[in-house]
Inverse folding.
């Protein structure tokens, strides 16, 4: 049982390049999330998918797009990377719905944009 | 809008108790969480408390909630060097599918 997996673990891009961060969960969760973590700013929500077939903007969606490919997979795309997108990106998933509903996190992708 | 705040840094000696504080603004919060992040890793849930509770204890962890002041704290008894990590509080509002995280408190435990 792998939980939440993310690829790649590390990536260096040049300004203007594009890339897709992959996330998959094997817990049959309905909801999935993309966060970015920057020093002193905690986790900020980029996009989320409450259920398969739906996506919604979070707090900082500009410069990103997402695809909920199926129930297991939720990808994050940077079309034209900028240095301000240098960050650690975390994917998370949860059962979805009311109640305590723990979010489970992947190990993160460390992205540097030069 | 929702806002969750924490102090950035706490340093304690091994064996002491640690208290990490958090304040939030959303009075509609129903669940409040504490997550732990070890170096180079994702976040792991430590514990949570429902908003109609004042206290929850789980082994070395004690969570206190003052709903009137919108203040949440996490006490770690007999702190160990392995407790060194970043601790995040987060809140969830009924009906919303997302959490709002604080900035995180870096706990450093020295021998």
């Amino acid at each position: 049982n792998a939980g939440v997996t993310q690829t790649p673990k590390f990536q260096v891009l040049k300004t203007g390049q594009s890339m897709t961060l992959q996330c998959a969960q094997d817990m049959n969760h309905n909801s999935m999330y993309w966060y970015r973590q920057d020093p002193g700013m905690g986790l900020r929500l980029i996009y989320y998918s409450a259920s398969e077939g739906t996506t919604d903007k979070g707090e900082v969606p500009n410069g990103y797009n997402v695809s909920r490919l199926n129930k297991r997979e939720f990808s994050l795309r940077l079309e034209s990377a900028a240095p301000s997108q240098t960050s650690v990106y975390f994917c998370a998933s949860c059962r979805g719905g009311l109640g305590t509903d723990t979010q489970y996190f992947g190990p993160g992708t460390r992205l540097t944009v030069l | 809008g929702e806002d969750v705040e924490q102090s950035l840094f706490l340093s304690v000696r091994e064996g002491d108790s640690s208290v990490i504080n958090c304040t939030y603004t959303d009075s509609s919060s129903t669940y409040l969480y504490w997550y732990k992040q070890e170096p180079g890793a994702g976040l792991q849930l430590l514990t949570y408390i429902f908003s109609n509770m004042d206290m929850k204890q789980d082994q070395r962890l004690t969570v206190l909630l003052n709903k009137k002041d919108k203040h949440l704290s996490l006490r770690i008894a007999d702190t160990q060097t392995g407790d060194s990590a970043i601790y995040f509080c987060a809140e969830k509002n009924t009906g919303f599918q997302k959490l709002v995280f604080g900035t995180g408190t870096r706990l450093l435990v020295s021998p």
